[in-house]
Design goal:
Elements lengths: L7 E6 L10 H5 L35 E5 L5 E3 H19 L20 E5 L5 H11 L3 E4 L6 H11 L3 E5 L2 H15 L8 H23 L15 E4 L21 H5 L35 H6 L1 E6 L9 E5 H14 L12 E3 L7 H14 L2 E4 L7 H10 L4 E4 L1 H17 L12 E4 L6 H11 L3 E7 L3 E5 L10 H4 L7 E2 L3 E6 L7 H16 L5 H6 L7 E7 L5 E2 L14 E2 L2 E2 H7 L6 E9 L5 E6 L4 E3 L2 E3 L1 H9 L4 E10 L5 E9 L8 H15 L11 E4 L23 E3 L16
Parallel strand pairs: 2-11, 4-5, 4-6, 5-8, 6-7, 10-11, 12-13, 13-14, 27-28
Antiparallel strand pairs: 1-17, 2-3, 8-9, 9-19, 14-15, 15-16, 17-18, 18-22, 20-21, 22-23, 24-25, 26-27, 28-29
Length: 743
């Protein structure tokens, strides 16, 4: 029977758990896993890890939560809790009354630009105190990548219109923010509705006036303006400003050196506001600086905690609204679904903060989980990633889990292969590491197996999104050939996490039995590339039919942001307060399923396999090709460092595959003849591995693939890469051509 678009093909359901009704910041410091029973076993091995427990004990207050490798500064759990409440006290005074809750139990988000706090910073020591302080005061936090250019930043500013902004001091922070504000002020931001554009310009004019007064007023020694006269605060982390060091948490300079020289430094907010009843008093944890208000379940679900900006792999960035309940759900599922993690009484966790905290992954997998579990997070001295420096940090700080992106997995695999060839491989460099977590994009199966065989460390693929939070995760402790259950996990992104349901729905465009048969065959070949029996693996559960991945979870977003607030009382066909109805209803069904736009399949063991991205599917001569599959195939070539496929239109408007390839030998980039010879070798390679309609017609040899910070390939931007577009030659006559496997 032919499947119709939207037909449900398969479902997998994760474990269930009840969540506490409270503010997100309150949850972070509530020792939420202190009494959590250690009964959840790995779906792949069915074993319970005894170290995954708090033994009923709270996190020791003096536990180091953050350590700055640049300054040696350290922040304990106790100090972070106290400072976040001090920040809440000042933020509450600056922002004003919280948005009221009407007592209704519905799906209408409670959010307003008036109570929005923007954080545009690299990973740094003050980050947690600022965001937790804002959440404690029931403000919405919007985190922004500090590397965005003024035009990109202006789009976000125009829609978010924050009441307070925290950015880096100097050219990389406040100067870039000022340039973005000028663009909003001058009406240079496109893709805005007239109503939002008008509000944005009015907001920009007001903020520019306040900020200009901050920037130009002359202050004598000891003469600081009241915080009430400020709306933009800086953190001294920029490489071009005063040495680029923020001394927060440093035992050498507890007062904060940057605060002494900059009246707009964020650390002034740790002191009581002028006129506050605690002004001039010594407050402590025994007398908290701010009382966090309790939330009912209904308010917890409705009150927006965070606006993140989608990665934009298929178009302009969209604001994603996440509630206190949704964020807590994501944190909770992370700990309860990953028994390989250790509690404080069993050695605890030590992680490196490479993933940006402006991103969903960095916030929900590293920063906030570190507080809830008592883990120590190391902030590298150099924010720019270098694999050898990273591995040095792993050894120096005895890291327990590596959180890295797919490109880093490939680099690690290449380093291992090269060191083995030279006889210099030291398998003990990862001695303290129990597992490697990789998310953000599909990862090469060959790289996973190579790393485990050489280093004995499993690479756990994870799946999630800004809109749905953490969804699934592989959990095996090893990938030994004798561990059949764990072997079955390689190549997949694991089983659904706690309170997560995953469904596979038929895809529009793959309606005929013949097309469905071809797509399933592609997946079987992908599974068999890991050494498993593809047909047997996929047959038991609805015949392993591929389709669009739908997710229903407590961590699902409230919806896409309209650019308005719930206090604007705007109700149109496209906007309902803070909700963009058009984009939201196109993505979330009435019964709460989020349509991810990713193509996948559930196997007989409930493990999810990612096949591709629906909007990125390339249709060649009537056949649909997932570019991620070609990325993986070419990524395994011994001469290739990185690769990305994209569809391009020929003169006759037919779609063809163009392959962007980064060679291991950079000398190839310098000579056209060498490139042509390289393309010939790549062509001969692909015809032995893929059916004819998956052979690229074009190749572009380049020095890098454009990706976002989490490692996702920005396919819509690949055309901007400079290079010669080579037409693929005919394969050598003697090369065997792969035929379609028969089911």
């Amino acid at each position: 029977m032919t499947k119709q678009p939207g037909d449900r093909l398969a479902v997998a359901i994760g474990p269930k758990a009840d969540l506490p009704a409270m503010n997100l910041a309150q949850f972070a410091f509530s020792n939420p896993f202190q009494h959590s029973p250690n009964t959840y076993a790995s779906p792949s091995t069915k074993k319970i890890n005894k170290g995954h427990s708090f033994d009923g004990l709270p996190i020791p207050p003096q536990s180091t939560i953050m350590y700055d490798a640049k300054t040696g500064a350290a922040i304990t759990w106790e100090r972070l809790r106290g400072d976040s409440l001090r920040m809440a006290r000042s933020i509450n005074a600056l922002v004003g009354p919280e948005l009221p809750f009407d007592g209704q139990d519905n799906d209408v988000p409670i959010h307003s630009p008036r109570t929005t706090v923007m954080v545009c910073l690299p990973n740094c020591m003050p980050y947690a105190s600022i965001v937790l302080g804002a959440w404690s005061a029931l403000c919405t936090v919007t985190t922004v990548n500090y590397l965005l250019m003024p035009d990109e930043l202006a789009h976000i500013l125009a829609k978010a219109r924050p009441q307070l902004i925290f950015c880096a001091a100097g050219e990389e922070g406040e100067e870039r923010m000022w340039q973005a504000l000028e663009r909003v002020h001058n009406g240079k931001v496109t893709n805005l509705t007239p109503a939002i554009a008008e509000r944005a310009q009015k907001w920009a004019k007001e903020l520019a006036s306040v900020w200009q007064a901050q920037r130009t007023r002359y202050y004598q020694r000891g003469d600081l303006p009241p915080n009430a006269a400020k709306r933009v605060f800086t953190v001294n982390v920029g490489a071009t400003h005063a040495g680029g060091v923020d001394y927060y948490g440093s035992s050498a300079r507890k007062d904060g050196a940057s605060a002494l020289s900059d009246p707009n430094d964020w650390s002034h907010l740790l002191s009581p506001p002028q006129g506050h009843k605690q002004s001039g008093a010594l407050d402590s944890l025994s007398r908290p600086a701010f009382a966090i208000r309790k939330l009912s379940r209904a308010e917890q679900r409705r009150r927006t905690a965070l606006i993140l900006w989608s990665s934009g792999t298929t178009g302009p960035s969209k604001g994603v609204l996440l509630s206190h309940f949704g964020f807590i759900s994501s944190i909770y599922s992370g700990w309860t679904s990953l028994p390989i993690l250790h509690g404080p009484t069993h050695g605890g966790e030590r992680w490196i903060a490479m993933a940006p905290w402006s991103h969903m992954y960095g916030l929900t997998v590293i920063l906030i989980p570190a507080i809830t579990t008592g883990a120590t997070v190391i902030i590298p001295a150099n924010p720019r990633f270098d694999l050898k420096d990273y591995l040095s940090l792993v050894q120096l700080y005895r890291i327990t889990h590596m959180h890295i992106s797919p490109p880093v997995v490939v680099h690690l695999r290449n380093l291992i292969v090269e060191q083995k060839r030279q006889g210099k491989l030291n398998p003990k460099i990862l001695d303290t590491v129990r597992a490697i977590c990789c998310g953000g994009a599909p990862t090469s199966n060959a790289a996973i197996q190579t790393i485990f065989n050489a280093m004995g460390k499993p690479v756990h693929q994870a799946y999630g999104s800004t809109e749905a939070g953490s969804t699934s995760h592989a959990t095996a402790t090893d990938y030994e050939e004798s561990n059949t259950a764990a072997q079955m996990e390689i190549g997949s992104v694991g089983a659904p996490m706690t309170n997560v349901e995953i469904a596979i729905h038929a895809i529009p465009g793959c309606l005929t039995a013949e097309e469905t048969k071809r797509r399933r065959q592609d997946i079987i070949l992908q599974v068999e590339s890991t050494g498993l029996d593809g047909k047997k693996r996929l047959h038991a559960l609805h015949e392993g039919l591929p389709g669009e991945i739908w997710v229903r979870a407590g961590s699902n977003m409230q919806g896409y942001y309209s650019g308005l607030g719930s206090d604007d009382n705007v109700q149109t066909e496209t906007f309902s307060g803070a909700l963009d109805l058009t984009n939201t209803t196109n993505s979330i069904t009435k019964d709460g399923w989020f349509k991810t736009g990713d193509e996948g399949v559930l196997d007989a063991h409930g493990q999810l396999w990612i096949v591709g991205r629906l909007k990125e599917l390339i249709k060649v001569k009537g056949f649909q090709v997932a570019p991620v599959e070609l990325d993986s195939v070419f990524g395994k070539h011994e001469e290739v460092n990185d690769a990305a496929a994209v569809g391009v239109l020929d003169a006759d408007q037919s779609e063809e595959i163009c392959m962007y390839v980064v060679p291991n030998q950079t000398s190839i980039l310098q000579e056209e003849k060498a490139q042509k010879e390289f393309v010939q070798r790549l062509t001969n390679y692909i015809v032995t591995l893929a059916v004819y309609y998956k052979w690229p017609k074009y190749f572009v040899i380049c020095d890098k693939i454009i990706k976002n910070p989490s490692g996702k390939i920005l396919r819509k931007d690949l055309h901007t890469i400079k290079g010669i577009r080579h037409i693929a030659p005919r394969p050598s006559q003697k090369m065997p051509v792969m035929r379609e496997a028969r089911l």
